[in-house]
Amino acid sequence: MSNKIELREAISIGIGGMVGGGIFAVLGLAVSLAKGGTPLAFLFAGILALITSYSYVQLSKLYSDRGGTVKFINQGFGKTVFSGAINNLLWISYIIMLSLYASAFGSYAPNLFQITSDKTLNFHIYANAIIILATAINYYSIKVVGKIESYAVIIKLVILIGFILVGAYGLIGNENIGQLSIENWEGPVMLFAGGMVIFVAYEGFELIANAAPDIKDPEKNIPKAYYYSVIFVIVLYIVIALVTVGSLPFQKIAEAEDYVMAEAAKPMLGQAGFTIITIAALISTFSAINASLYGGSRVNFEIAQDDELPHHFLAKLWNQPIGLLITSIATLILVNLLDLESISTAGSVGFILIFGIVNFVGFKLSKETGANQAIALTGFILCMIALVVLIHQQSQSNLTGVIVSFSIIGFCFLMEWIFKETEKKKGK
């Protein structure tokens, strides 16, 4: 029993997965889209995550498997071209998340130490270096990855809660607090779209599904792990958004969009606050890259085991799945090609689509799981609406992100179809 995951550890897996580099990477982007209504945008995205977590709870209890989301989709659709393509989209969405974290690291790090006088070059040096370092650590020892993650979760939560407490006190008498009033909100559709662009900041709760087989007293603790972690993060993000929008003028937020949380600590704590939050961002994004590289290579391995990727992906290189190196190389390519908003859009499109399908599986298998059909169906419909709103809004302001998103989805389906057809011919 000592190897079993306690409730506290299961909750920290969910919180650690969500409060990775996401909030540091997308906070400025959220404010640029939703303005004074940013807290509401985070609430909209959080409600979607919370409703989706209901389907995850029911499926995790019945189909407890380290494959997590991959297992649920195969359970709902069998091992078809559709399920294979969606599972491969999950793997690529991990790669997108990795490039988002690396992008955040590359934006924050030069504020501590500039390697060259060229801002763009500094970004690329840091973003590439952190991916290479994390890949080396993953090859060196998985135990080290686990240790880094367990310490990082505590450090980043302590700093973020400190930021909130000091920030809330700093709001008293701050001239920028008026920015939170309703006249500074974007329209309802834009608020919702803003929430969906930064939905990637919530996707990490699905990591609890991978840990489900090891959770102690699963019937009682699996629901608590999902709900407690998601609700905690919703509240955390909303308060961070309130403090940020109430502390800095919109123009300053726009100028420091990629490292806005550090800038928001300046009015309260001066340069020391800026430095502390920058260090927190670097620790958070580094630990998130470490954990996501490991998670991404495991997902890739699971998909190959389920015959939805060639068995070449089951090969090992330096005692780790070959998928680790492929995931790392793909991340390096993405982070050097795309801007932050395009990366965030592609990640959000991928995860909203995957979560919509998991909700549909929850609805489809409700008799087996004992789930409430209405909640699972609501989750599916909301995810589909969110997808349409997000794509519509981004097609007007960030067409590149939409084209990248559709290209990735199309690529997943085409590759899976070619693979399945090739396997059929081999079978003959």
Please outline the major beta sheet: 2 strands, antiparallel
Structural class: mainly alpha
Question: Any low-confidence stretches, pLDDT <50, length ≥5?
Answer: none
Query: Number of DSSP strands?
Result: 2
**Helix share of residues?**
over 70%
In round numbers, the mean pLDDT is 88
Helix run count: 18
Strand order of the largest sheet: 1-2
Number of domains: 1
CATH first level:
Mainly Alpha
| CATH level-3 fold name | Amino acid/polyamine transporter I
User: What amount of the residues lies in strands?
Assistant: under 5%
> Can you write the helix and strand succession as a string?
HHHHHHHHHHHHHEEHHHHH
What is the H level of CATH, i.e. the homologous superfamily? Amino acid/polyamine transporter I
CATH architectural label: Up-down Bundle
Separation of the first and last Cα atoms = 48 Å
Q: Note the overall shape.
A: globular
Question: Could you characterize what this model shows?
Answer:
The protein is mainly alpha-helical and 428 residues long. It has one domain (7-420): Amino acid/polyamine transporter I, CATH 1.20.1740. It has helices at residues 7-18, 22-34, 38-62, 69-77, 81-108, 119-140, 142-170, 188-197, 207-211, 218-247, 250-255, 260-264, 266-305, 322-337, 340-364, 366-369, 373-397, 399-427, and strands spanning 316-317, 320-321. A two-stranded antiparallel ribbon has the order 1-2. A hairpin with a 2-residue loop joins strand 1 and strand 2. Helix 5 packs antiparallel against helix 15 (340-364). The radius of gyration is 21 Å and the shape is globular. It starts with 6 loop residues before the first helix and ends with a helix. The mean pLDDT is 88.
